[in-house]
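lol ok so funny story. i was supposed to be doing the assay writeup but got distracted and ended up predicting the structure for this chain instead. priorities right. anyway since i did it might as well share w the group, maybe its usefull for someone
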Amino acid sequence: MAANRTLKTTSKAPAATLAWLILLASAVLEAVWATALGLSDGFTRPLPTLVFAVTATLSMVGLGMAVKRIPLGTAYAVWVGIGAALTVGWAMATGVEPASPLKLIFIAGIVGCAAGLKLLPAGKSGASPTLPPS
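and the output, tada:
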């Protein structure tokens, strides 16, 4: 009996780790497509528009894959938070957007909150979802 629990636990761990890696890669792609969107000049420049279309598609596919193992709310918050932080970070690094100490603190807060969601236990809550009365 205990051996069965050990096998189930260890078989889920690599899948969950892979889901988090896919989610992080998708968040990086979110930053790429957001940056490309800004460079596309309203979809009038072909190369940034193509980069936007490809990376947005791959980012969404990755998010969809990740939510098979990670709760949707958590996955979406991490995806948006990391993607937004990377987008702003890139804009500041390239001089498109000014950097400031407060901006850096707030961006660090977003990343810290996303990391905190990853550190929470993955167990299910005690309450089961209920449907509204028909």
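Confidence is low (pLDDT under 50) at residues 125-129. The two ends are 42 Å apart (CA to CA).
back to the writeup now i swear
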